[in-house]
Design a protein that fits this description.
This protein is an alpha+beta fold. 24% of the residues lie in helices and 26% in strands. The protein folds into 3 domains: 69 residues, Uridine Diphospho-n-acetylenolpyruvylglucosamine Reductase, domain 2; 133 residues, 2-Layer Sandwich (Uridine Diphospho-n-acetylenolpyruvylglucosamine Reductase, domain 3); 85 residues, Uridine Diphospho-n-acetylenolpyruvylglucosamine Reductase, domain 1. The strands form 5 sheets. Strands 6, 7, 8, 11, 12 and 13 form a 6-stranded antiparallel sheet that branches. Strands 1-2-5-3 form a 4-stranded mixed sheet, with no helix packed on it. A 4-stranded antiparallel sheet has the order 14-17-16-15. The longest helix is centred in the C-terminal third of the chain and has 19 residues. The radius of gyration is 20 Å and the shape is globular. It binds flavin-adenine dinucleotide. Flavin-adenine dinucleotide (FAD) binds next to β3, α3, β9, β13 and β14.
Length: 309
């Protein structure tokens, strides 16, 4: 196969780099080309010059993806480095009842929660429980314990595939449960979040509660991808828990190759050490089939599966 012809950049382009180390599952093949832009101008110039037929995929910290074993064709973009992770808090008047936080798409959600707590901004505590980046949160409408990105986002901006900067209000984002309308269409750069004023101590205390709750209920130190399936909603509006359905179908602890359904949380899959992406995705399909057979309910993947098998 001939090497992909790519525009000249100031950042880094790595050919055939394994993506496994950049994901929580630690599995998957290489990127045909992995681009780490130097800055926003480098990225927008690259996108402008890149032929439209070359696919572009963005990776955050890979906490919600399975990269398939055959790797990802085209260009994978990673926003690695401090310039993508800037967080600004102190620009609203302290007397204002509302306060804003601006965060780069490469900032970890947990760092945004910490910065908000330090500045006495309440409402973003739930970000302490999500191990991804702001770019991932905008794509997934990430959330936990009753709050989600759509509740606190004011606006976000990023580049479209042709390198044009575009800005969207929260209403434009088409957020539904673990979904946004722009999935794969915009490369997010920054977002502005809105919170309420509170004391840093009170915000920190609520964050600590969330962290402790997660420690007790999720296998957060494993090679995993978080919740595998979305919680299904039936036609009559009834909401079901994916983990309960998996558990009742007898799949807790079930194994395929090096992949296993977590004993701690039945909606989490784990790479026990030597799993392939095919093991993990195949295990997920086994679980879906078991739940369908037991309950007649179709589970939909929350984890993104990217690349070729
Ligand atoms: C232990 C564990 C616990 C978790 N708990 C939760 C939870 O409670 N709630 C929850 O919602 N999620 C949870 N997750 C899932 C995950 O952390 C979130 O979905 C997170 O938002 C993904 O962010 P990421 O940076 O890892 O994105 P990735 O996994 O790298 O990518 C996810 C998607 O976002 C896109 N993306 C990432 N960055 C950008 C960008 N800058 N521009 C455009 N697209 C981008 C990718 O293309 C991909 O489609 C958990 C995961 C783990 C491993």
């Amino acid at each position: 196969m001939s090497e992909l012809a790519l525009p000249t950049v100031r950042g880094q382009i790595l050919r055939g780099e394994s993506l496994a180390p950049f994901t929580w599952f630690r599995v998957g093949g290489p990127a045909e080309a992995l681009f780490i832009p130097a800055d926003e101008d480098d990225l927008s110039e690259f996108l402008r010059a890149l032929p439209q037929e070359i696919p572009v995929t963005v990776l955050g910290v890979g906490s919600n993806v399975i990269v398939r074993d055959g790797g990802v064709p085209g260009v994978v973009i990673r926003l690695a480095g401090r310039q993508w992770a800037q967080i600004v808090t102190d620009f609203d008047s302290v007397d204002a009842p509302e306060a804003r936080v601006i965060a780069g798409a490469g900032a970890l959600d947990s760092m945004v929660a910490k910065a908000a707590a330090k500045a006495g901004v309440a409402g973003l505590e739930f970000f302490a429980g999500i191990p991804g980046t702001i770019g991932g949160a905008l794509t997934m409408n990430a959330g936990c314990y009753g709050a989600e990105t759509k509740d606190v986002l004011e606006a976000a901006w990023g580049f479209d595939r042709s390198g044009e900067m575009r800005t969207f209000s929260v209403e434009d984002m088409g957020f539904t449960y673990r979904h946004s309308a722009f999935d794969g269409e915009i490369i997010w750069m920054q977002a502005v979040f809105k919170g309420r004023r509170d004391t840093p101590e009170a915000v920190q205390a609520r964050m600590n509660e969330i962290t402790a709750r997660r420690e007790g209920s999720q296998p957060i130190r494993e090679k995993t991808g978080g919740s595998t399936f979305k919680n299904p909603e039936l036609e009559n509006g009834e909401k079901l828990s994916a983990w309960k359905l998996v558990d009742e179908a007898g799949m807790r602890g079930y194994k395929r190759g090096g992949a296993q359904v977590s004993e701690k949380h039945a909606n989490f899959l784990i790479n026990t050490g030597d799993a392939t992406a095919a093991d993990i995705e195949g295990l997920g399909e086994d679980v879906r089939a078991a739940v369908k057979a037991k309950h007649g309910v179709e589970l939909n993947w929350e984890i993104k599966r990217i690349g070729r098998a």
